[in-house]
Amino acid sequence: MVASPFLAAGLILIVVNQSSAFYPLLPAMSDFPPPSPESRRGKSRSESSLGDGRRGAVGANVDAPPLSEAVPPPFTQSEGSIRHLTHMHEDDIPDLSSRFGSIVLLEVSYVEPNYLRPWQKRSQGSCTGSGFAISGRRILTNQHVVQDATDIRVRKHGNAKRWRAKVVCNGPDVDLAVLEIFASEEDPEDVETFWDGVKQVEWAADGPPELQSSVNVVGYPTGGRTICVTEGVVSRVDCRNYRIKTSSAAAGNLLVIQIDAAINPGNSGGPCFDDDGRVVGVAFQGLEGSDAQNVGYIIPSNTVHNFLYDIECEVEPNADPKADKTESSAKRYKYEGVQEVPFRWAPLQNKSLRKLLKMPKESTGVVVTRVSPLAEKRYNTFLKENDVITHIDGRSIGDDYTVALRQDELMNADFLITGKRSGVPTVFDVIRDTKSLKISVTLGPLPSNVPREHNLDCTPEWLVIGGLLFVPLTCPLLAYGSTEELEASGYLKVYDFIDEQAHEFRKEEGKESIMLIDILACDTNFGYYFRQSWRALDTVNGNKVKNMADLHNMYSDACRHVKRSGNTKTVSIDGDGVDSKAATVGDVANASSDDGTDDFLTFRFKDKTRIVLGTAECQSSEKEVLEQHGIPKAASDGIIEQAKSSKTAVSTKNSASTVSEK
């Protein structure tokens, strides 16, 4: 019998008498029975089974050789790329049951905001998730598990009692949140009862786990109320965005670990252990659909360490759990965000572009196409357009903006910036006008051109003028899916609006895009229909609108002018002409002009359409519109406060200018 082994994709192909048999690259059967395909793909431990080690044997009379003879010594594809496969005895398998005491079930009640009807809240909902104990008597979980929570209950493994918890800090950009057990006035010792017997987890060493290393995800997924363990391997280490719907508005890409252990709803926030029972990451996403089977993602421990370091610099992940807690949680915990990538780039793979930039043949890198204006103001020495970035922190950048994580594992270079702790500088090697420069700068968060997160950089705000409902453009507007009614209103345009704005850097503080999202029917706006109402506002009476507060002040000034003049003319004009009730040619001229007259409000939008309403009519219809739609006031409190502050700032500036002129 002649056997010719071929090494391919982790299998040994053995040709025997024109028949083929496939064997997994595993230790000898006598040492350790190989797991079945099901257990490798992330089945629950209670459901997994052990196979016989032979797959696809062809020919009933063929006796395959024992694995101890057929399999060559364990190998590695490249150092740091594929884990060295070693013989493992049953005694070496970690007993994860000793870690179960660190893992908790979270039962969350929440009430989400309603950005489409910003004066309302959505109906109460509930969900479950997982979490685990870390240093300082804290619980770590995903931010999306406890987002908008009104009540959080924590249940320990093997204990039916529920303890109340509260969120003390969260990081939406890394999808992490820290909880503390809430001490009630009736039973202040209840916190001690919870932590009795609960141990903080142990963290793996810095750096993502190697490919093909075994991992176990532990938590409380759907399908039951007891703790569940799924096992698999590290399939990929990548650099991608943690945000699904608003990826274009994110600060940059972060390291992420893909595993083939099942991650289901309810697993979110649970730990992922390595072979030694140490935490290598936090479960947070899984792909669904026929094209994705057993594709789950975990947040690597490095990202978690950075988050914990940033919110409380003196407390490290493995610090003493009895750390001093004399200060209030609100003061102790503060998170500003990851270091942001403040530039846009283009690949340098085209030979003509390389010649134009006079790039040496042996050099690689990318060309800077845009730089954040706010970053240019913040940092004295910074990147410029047409700079060629060749290295970041001494690591060579490829022509496609990739960098080696571990030798041959190439990925997006954003992680060299977003993966840093706050206060750590980044060094860019650049070529500018054929000259080599080093630029060292400590980066930080930057305000997004489109606000990203509810209660972080935006809240539901509104302004109603003559039944026109205006709101600021924010990423939470994307949270409403697609219904027939929403599609009829032009809601799907919001994806284009956000995508367009999010790819741009914010040019000045306080600037925001304003959306008309509905036309609340009344006599004042008759002739303008709510169908396809979604559009972006550009000017009012010929004046550019900076933000919602600016729009509020424009309308207030127009109302005061009309009240002083006693002008009560009413003219209604649609986008194409004059309504039959229009009064005179002079009225029409005033209404259709953009000369700043306050008798009429001419709203021009970026799609070149317009709406014209009489200012006095808007005032007189306000009470009726608000009552019919259950709106408490024409403008939200946030807009009113911003408008007052804006007025005060302008008044102060004008006073200072007058004094200077004198």
UniProtKB/TrEMBL annotation:
Looking up InterPro entries in the UniProt record yields:
DEGP_PDZ (IPR041517), DEGP_PDZ_sf (IPR046449), PDZ_sf (IPR036034), Peptidase_S1_PA (IPR009003), Peptidase_S1_PA_chymotrypsin (IPR043504), Peptidase_S1C (IPR001940)
Q: Which domain of life is it from?
A: Eukaryota
Q: Which UniProt keywords apply?
A: Hydrolase, Protease, Serine protease, Signal, Virulence
The biological process GO terms on file are: proteolysis
**Gene3D superfamilies tied to this protein:** 2.30.42.10, 3.20.190.20, Trypsin-like serine proteases
Q: Where is the composition biased (Polar residues)?
A: 643-662
GO molecular function, a single term:
serine-type endopeptidase activity
* Sequence similarity: Belongs to the peptidase S1C family.
How is this protein named in the record? Protease Do-like PDZ domain-containing protein
Which species does this protein come from?
Answer: Odontella aurita
